[in-house]
Amino acid sequence: MLLNSYHFIFFFIALFFIYWRLAKTNKTQNIILLIGSYIFFAIWSYQFILLIFGTSVATYFIGKQLLIAKDTEKKWWLRLGVLVVLGQLIYFKYTNFFIENFNDLLKIFHSKGNISTLQYIIPIGISFYSFRMLGYLLDIKNRKLKESKSLLEYLVYVAFFPCIIAGPIDRSFVFLNQLKEKRIFNATLFSLGLRQILWGLFKKLVIADQIAVITTELFSKYEGLNGSALFVGMILYFIQLYADFSGYSDMAIGIGKLLGINVQKNFNFPFFAQNVADYWRRWHISLTSWVTDYVFTPLSIQFRDYGKFGLILAIIINFIIIGFWHGAEWHYIFHGLVSGIMFIPLILGGKMGKKIKPNLNILPTFREAKNMIITFISFALLQVLFFSKSLEMALHYYKGIFSLSFFQKPNFQFQRFVAILIIFMMAIEWLTRNQEFPTANFLDSKPRIVRWGFYYVLVFLIFLFYLAPKGYIYAQF
């Protein structure tokens, strides 16, 4: 059941009515959220209800022991919790990767042995809810959670249905505190939620799904395309990825608002980033901040005696983990490796932690525009490693881009209206880049007819370009 499907609309309307009209206490609200979340999860992946429930219960009781254990015992309880979470994640997501690479190693040594890969389905959202569980245990260990929450609240936190497919990965100490009290319906928050969902639907259905029609065909025949066509395809995919993933995040956050729950922000207009560090502060914020807090920070402390080399090493390890988190394929690992390497000039230049001062002007300065274009193209090039099915495909794609055929006219056509839609989205996001999301306060100072006219344009475009519901790119992770 996709967030952009009619089935979900009917499901959510029923849940919304029961949640606000029939639930009289925070406990009954949480029970309704849990039942709804498990129904939502079961529709996607009913075979694994016991897995998510079992690992949630296990990590909850391990967390309780972490809270009361002596300092000498805490590390053993934490290791057990990490083993439970990473054990199920590694088994379902990475076992075949290790088997296949071990078989390749055997071939190098001309061994006749061969281990068969496993045949199974990967549970939907396993990477996202695994990091929620792991973050909960680490928050207890780091004393960010100082009291035991109820099992019901923890189960809701792990399986919260708007975020189960593709995040955001909320921090436990922020999310769980919201479940302690009864949520009171707030008309302002409800309005903000609807507007954020509207913008998310626009990005997903009008931008991402329209581009997907082009990129799907382009990637299927990439070997016969010239460099300029491949370059255009790379740019289009980067925009598609952003519109698809941030569109989902907007819908998830907006749905949370409708339920009186604040979900962590996941994107902050990354196309307007001016360097590598600025980009990663804006892109998939919940994942990068999670890995930064729980992986990079401890590593940077561990390597601090090695100066800038230690910082570079910590950054590269950090991003290799992010790459491997995305999938058990070498092209994802190299995506992470290259992401880390891109930080080296900033680190050597002493500009790693330098924040970019926000520009409130309508137009960017020449320097800002130059930096944004360079950063955009750099990360668009990086996404070749993301959408490629293998390292071989990525290398072939790069070879095509960096050939003399780059200077030829693209030998692949796409509809001009897609470019117009992209420009429209980018223009709105640039004008509203200092807001939480584009439709939050856009045109609030204008007459009501203008503001509502803009919303109706978005609704019209959604229905005009609506195709059959397509899945989300990040659902595979």
Portion of residues in helices?
Answer: 55-70%
Structural class: mainly alpha
Q: Give helix and strand order, one letter per element, not per position.
A: HHHHHHHHHHHHHHHHHHHH
The gyration radius over C-alpha positions equals 23 Å
Number of helical segments?
20
Segments where pLDDT lies below 50 for 5+ residues?
none
How many domain modules?
2
Looking at how many chains there are and whether they match, the oligomeric state comes to single chain
- The best one-word shape is globular
Distance between termini?
17 Å
Major sheet characteristics:
none
Strand content: under 5%
How many beta-strand segments? Answer: 0
- Residue-averaged pLDDT: 90
Features:
single chain; 0% strand; 477 residues; transmembrane; D-alanyl-lipoteichoic acid acyltransferase DltB, MBOAT superfamily; 20 helices; transferase; mainly alpha; globular; Ac/AlaTfrase_AlgI/DltB; 2 domains; acyltransferase activity
Structural summary, described in words:
With 477 residues, the chain is mainly α. It has 2 domains: 6-184, no CATH class; 188-274 and 358-476, no CATH class. 67% of the residues lie in helices and 0% in strands. The protein is built from 20 helices and no strands. The protein has helices at 6-22, 26-45, 49-68, 71-93, 95-108, 126-141, 151-159, 172-178, 187-220, 227-258, 276-282, 285-302, 307-326, 330-341, 344-348, 366-382, 384-387, 391-401, 416-431, 448-465. Helix 9 (187-220) packs antiparallel against helix 10 and helix 13 (307-326) runs antiparallel to helix 14. The longest helix is centred in the middle third of the chain and has 34 residues, at 187-220. It is globular and about 65 Å long. The model has no long low-confidence stretch (mean pLDDT 90). Keywords: Acyltransferase, Cell membrane, Membrane, Transferase, Transmembrane, Transmembrane helix. Pfam families: MBOAT.
